[in-house]
Amino acid sequence: MLSSVNTRVTNAAKVGKRDMKKYEEIHFVDINQPVWNYSLFSDEDVRNFQNGTHYSLYKLMGNKQITVNDTPGSYFAVWAPNATFLSVTGDFNHWNKESHPLKVRSDNSGIWEGFIPNIGAGEAYKYHLHGFKGICLDKGDPYANFWETRPKTASITWQTDYEWQDAEWMKHRKKHNSLNAPYSVYEVHLASWMRPDKNNEERYNTYAQITERMVPYVKEMGFTHVEFMPVMEHPFDGSWGYQGTGYFAPTSRFGTPQDYASMVDAFHQAGIGVILDWVPSHFPYDAHGLFMFDGTHTYEYADMRKGFHPDWNSYIFNYKRGEVKSFLISSARFWCDQFHTDAIRVDAVSSMLRLDYSRNAGQWEPNEYGGNGNIEAIAFITDLNETLYRDFPDIQTIAEEATDWPKISKPTFEGGLGFGMKWMMGWMHDTLDYFNLDPIFRQFQQDKFSFSMMYFYDENFMLPLSHDEVVHGKSPMLYKMPGDEWQKFANLRILYTYMYTHPGSKLLFMGNEFGATNEWNYKSELQWELLEHASHAGMKHCVQKLNELYRSEPALYEKQYEPGGFEWVDLNHRSESVLVYMRKGKKPKDSLLIILNVTPVVRLDWEIYVHGKGKWKEAFNSNSEAFWGTGDVFNPNISSELVDKPSECYKIKVHLPALGAVVLK
Predict the structure, then answer these.
(1) Tell me: the pLDDT tens digits for 380-419?
(2) Domain interval for residue 660
(3) Last residue of some domain: 156, 175, 197?
(4) CB atoms closer than 10 angstroms to residue 455
(5) Residues that are catalytic
(6) Are the C-beta atoms of 277 and 174 separated by less than 8 Å?
(7) pTM given for the model
């Protein structure tokens, strides 16, 4: 039996034009062609794999197109320790499950491997296993670089080779990823940012089309980084990528791995960093995926008190198992190594750390010390961060951790988990609660507003207004704000000004920047038509200018994680709800004074006492007419009076617009 190039092209999902040359040569595979004994593994590789210390398995496992004895073909390697038979079945042998068996290594590693001549790129394939108690399974390749587009579930023989053009970015990205650099993130769901047909959820823009549209937009908006919600292959659109099956493959929904690499390359050439959402906390139970891979709990804990996640109806990795730890850390390194990723945002860290996460009494078992910490997960996370920062010292790792677990972003040598940053969930909840209040009641909740600085220096915090806040009935950002239409926009402009002038890096989910009026829907696209309205166009312009302010003013980033970079100036006007604070850079002349008037009352000649500076000018006003504000309350000249020479105390008078934020320099 023979397979032809036509079969391969049909099954290779969405092949880019430059990749078509890979299909021009027809390889004929005889079904009786034996699998050659061949291995890429050394004894040391096997030991490290089993010990949980092999962090580049993507170079060995899965499918590799190589040449053996002058014969081109594909090497396959997969871990299935409880399988009794394992073969490669696919297009090349017309899905015959017996014709091309792999051989298990004799070292008890559970690795099955072999070389099949004359198989090139573009072949759909799976592993056929006889597993525990004789169960027969057909599984995708956990290490595959490319998969069929859902609802198909086969892996595709492919490599990630790509000629990068981002040398300039890679040379200097350390300064862009530094904790004392502006770090403003635009969070994106690739499928729903923009579609070729906004009413057809089955149609997507390609990676190339996304690149053409998104790179100039993010550049125009002034964000320093873009964060992709999980691009790793996943079977169900409704999981938004958080239920993944392909930990080493960009999703084929939008094109090939090379097309994805080209998109990252384009962002880098535009001076924009790329952050990936990565999910080592859980995986789905799809039959072709990791669950019960060889008929046993191979990748997940066998004890469902640790191995099943009740919130997401999915399964939890067995962090105690060395082979699983090697798999996960290799995945994180893969994205940094092969696709030049600038930061890894680790999802659902709380669920990994806590044995009692979303579990009631009796549904979890304490660790050996009687506590609720998952000791194996803690060890995995610290090793993950140490490895990534060792091998890629100019990246960041970012934790989504929603509890008060200590030292998330402190170095491991200080007893921390070693992340570079942590999402500041407390700030997000308190801030949204505060701004949701009718302005007349804000005077009674000022402590909720100011509380964030009580614990800000405990971690390196990122301020997130993410996708999670605009779904499931939580309402879009605009409609979280009180008041009539004008007041909603004015409140949202203050909130964003507060975020951009508060210490810490920033994250804004797509659509938030122009005041979407619908909750985010992964089946549709953003409401781009809203930009025809001056109110929404003004909001977009406001965010653009805030990004510009953040990037251009050293006081907003140079000392954003140092106590000397922030100072409360005036919190003593609760009844008027006027809040004043100062941001400081390395040079005194760079200091900024931020005044927030969070009630719909104009306040003329508002007196503020500041030390050390007598001359101020307005650098930003959220009430600008360009932002759909009234534009009639601003500060062309700011009066200043020295009231105490020894302490260099000055009284300045400022006009404060209703529901407005003013930044002085």
Answers:
(1) 999 999 999 999 999 999 999 999 899 999 999 999 999 9
(2) 433-464+486-507+534-665
(3) 156
(4) 13
(5) 347, 400
(6) no
(7) 0.93
